[in-house]
């Protein structure tokens, strides 16, 4: 725990210490931290009702709760899985739109004789393949960390795989979209190109940011070596 | 009872505590400790990630509720949670019967000693 000043609230110090040690989606983390605060406040209230002075009640509540070092692994595991699901959701939702947009840009507004240069077509096809694989992996991750986790253990390395799949997909978007746009500029529909560019940029920003957070979470220890494992 | 001994059965304990109706986190911990007569010592802080996991897999549903001037997150069983609790109970009965029959063998009448 952090060093407490003479007027600081020990419960808030504890909550701040745990919060500083955890990384993950802001909303999920805020909810977990709020629950810790509520739980500790309840415990302190109960102990003071039993007659303990406030400071001793806080000490007992914190002792029962566990030190941040003891708890951070189990809390971080849930936050890491939440971040992996966040990244997987971003990939699964945005990539199909981006791929559809690439397809529209490739085909719309051109005569039958117009075609993208061969190199650009091959590159976009390969990058689209990468994006499709990432989207399928993301959908599988959402299933594996959701309902399926009742029966199947969640692999410890899954968040790391999702993080790199998201990173790869965001790079694919970043490379393919301008290449396609430049190639299409030879004789294309500017409104559609602008829409495709904005959509791709927004999707890239969303997926890349989430994948970066997921990589950070996935590097943190998830397994307490002293703890027996059951389920996920 | 040691924390390690409880850990493998934590899901079942939490689901059972919620069988009678929605409870918030600290009330769940209190319910488990009271039902066990104080024999089960749960590290309070480990309960919340477990509740979060059970909600993620669809066995619990939670919502914030106002209790006086404070807001608390209350959990309740889903239908899948009730079915899982039934399965946990069945598995536990089979486990204790099997272990019990080994630890406390009942000798058949007239069996050689």
Descriptive terms for the model:
heterodimer, A: 232 residues, mainly alpha, 2 domains, disordered C terminus, B: 113 residues, alpha+beta, Arc Repressor Mutant, subunit A, three-stranded antiparallel β-sheet, 5 helices, 3 strands, 16% strand
In short:
The complex is a heterodimer of chains A (about 230) and B (about 110). Chain A is about 75% helix and about 0% strand. Chain A has about 230 residues and is mainly alpha-helical.
Rounded radius of gyration of chain A (Å): 24 Å
Question: Could you say which overall geometry of chain A the principal axes of the C-alpha atoms support?
Answer: elongated
User: How far is it from the N-terminal to the C-terminal residue of chain A, by CA?
Assistant: 29 Å
CATH class of chain B: Mainly Alpha
**End-to-end C-alpha gap of chain B:** 36 Å
Tally the structural domains of chain B.
Answer: 1
Question: What structural category do the secondary elements of chain B indicate?
Answer: alpha+beta
The oligomerization state is heterodimer
Helix proportion of chain A: over 70%
Task: Sum up the overall morphology of chain B in one term.
Answer: elongated
Strand residue content of chain A: under 5%
Proportion of strand residues of chain B: 15-25%
Which spans of chain B of ≥5 residues are poorly predicted at pLDDT below 50? none
Looking at the structure, the CATH topology of the largest domain in chain A is: Four Helix Bundle (Hemerythrin (Met), subunit A)
